[in-house]
Each structure stands twice: as C-alpha cells, then as structure tokens.
Design brief:
Length: 274
C-alpha cells in the first residue's frame, strides 16, 4: 500500500511538472527547426526572462552553430540539435510536435463504445514510468522510439499497411519532449566547422550516437547532467569511479527519407584489473 501511495505521488508531481513546463513549448506557428542565424539570435534573446524557455531553446539551437549559407545573399541556417529527426518528411514536423505533444495531457479514449477507456495525464505517465509499453496511442511521436523504424526487411508484411503501423506511448513522448531541455546544445568544432553538440552525444564515421548512464543509487538532476557530459561516459574502465553500472548507447540511422534511433546497446563496466 505504501508503495502505491509513493507511486501515486511521483506520478501526480510529474503530471503537474509536465503541465507547467509545457507552457514554454510554443513556436509561433513555426513547424520546423530551420531558423536562420539572425532568427535564432533574436529568439534566444527574447526568452531571457523565462528560465524554462531558455533551457528549451538552448537545447534546440545556437546562433553560433550554423550551416554554410546557400547563395551569396542567403543567411546561414542553424545546425539543429542532432535529436531533431523531423524536417517535414511525410508531413512530420518537429516543432509542431514539440509544441503539441506536451500540451496534450492524454490520448483519445482507447477502445470503442462502452468498452472505451478514458485516461488521465497521471495514467499515461504511470504507464510510461512503471509499466510495460504497449504503444496503442494514435498520438504524435518524434521517431526516437526504435519501434518506429518499420522497414520491409524487418517486417513480415508491408510496413505501410495499417496492421503494421505502430502506435505510440503517449506518456513517454510527453516526458521525452519535456526532458529534451536537459540536453543543452553547445557549439563544437568538427571537421573544420562549428556544429551542434549535446551532452551524451558523439559523432564518428558511422554518424551520431547518444549514450546515457545507468546508475543504481538515487541521483539528482545535476549529477545526471554531469554524468552525461563526463569524458568517461563511454569508457567501461571508468564506470566504477563515476559510480555507474554502465551506459546505454543508441545510434541515429537514416532509412530513405526518414531517420530513427536504433535499439540501445548496454555497455557494461569493467572490474579493476579486467
């Protein structure tokens, strides 16, 4: 009984927090993360009095990390967070979803008629945090879930058929959208150009990958952010010193015009002398 009460308190506070932070998720009708250098600078300056919005925008873009301008009179466009996988392909727009998903407390009722089940925001977050995911919600996602990578080679039938189209776990996507603000973007010189980098992210010849720690004792948000940016995050011999059991790593992949993340691999720590 005590565990159920504790779980209920966690979910209730999470629901209140998501609702509060969702107010910062507005982009004046902008659908894609394709701001020019000047637009990005103005947008960041306009948010200086709103801490939640500062954290969100700082995780999305920087006026110091830009792409080369196309054309003599064109202004450079920002190099967006590498977690942005939607640029209008298949009418999927990143900022449109980043604004709408946190603002939607729950998905439409599940089922039909008398058997329909109406969920609350707390129900959705409880499912995401404490239950197996079933991905039955017809709501927007960000292609961060490996289950959204549906290809002919991986399916028993045509992945465009409705029988093979996966739904979403709405509570998980709400938490992910809000949690994105933790991954503050920073300019990084890469291949002679200033590009966008985020904590836990890494570029190599295979492209971009994201790693995150697995810790056992309770950790504060400040501690977790420090671990994400630690140079030893992907080095098993340093996990014991860092106080973590290991880390997970997922790669960003391109499948035709779409992008996805692979299922994460677990990197286990090494004992002393191993």
């Amino acid at each position: 009984m005590a565990k159920a009460q504790t779980t209920g308190e966690v979910v209730a506070r999470a629901a209140d927090g998501v609702a509060l932070l969702a107010k910062a998720h507005h982009f004046d009708g902008r659908k894609d993360l394709n701001y020019s250098e000047g637009e990005a600078r103005a947008l960041l300056k306009s948010a200086t009095d709103d801490a939640a919005r500062v954290f969100l925008l700082s995780a999305l873009l920087s006026d110091a990390a830009v792409k080369e301008a196309k054309g003599a009179t064109a202004e450079p466009l920002i190099d967006p967070t590498p977690l942005c996988l939607l640029f209008g392909q298949g009418h999927q727009h990143f900022l449109d979803r980043l604004a709408s998903v946190p603002a939607q407390p729950a998905p439409p009722p599940r089922g039909r008629g008398r058997s329909a089940v109406t969920l609350t925001a707390e129900d959705c977050l409880a499912e995401a945090l404490f239950s197996p995911w079933h991905r039955t919600d017809p709501t927007f996602s960000f292609r961060w879930d490996p289950e959204e990578d549906v290809r002919y080679a991986l399916m028993a039938g045509n992945p465009t058929d409705s029988a093979y189209k996966a739904g979403t776990q709405h509570g998980a996507n709400r938490l992910a959208a809000i949690g994105l603000a933790v991954l503050t973007l920073a300019p990084e010189v890469r291949a002679g150009r200033v590009r966008a980098a985020i904590p836990g992210g890494h570029w190599d010849r295979q492209g971009f990958s994201l790693a995150w720690p697995i810790w056992h004792p309770p950790a504060s948000l400040a501690a977790i952010r420090s671990l994400l940016g630690h140079p030893g995050l992907r080095k098993p011999e340093q996990f014991t010193v860092m106080g973590i059991d290991g880390c997970m790593m997922a790669r960003r992949v391109s499948v035709g015009k779409f992008m996805n993340f692979t299922r994460a691999d677990f990197i286990k720590g090494k004992a002393a002398g191993e």
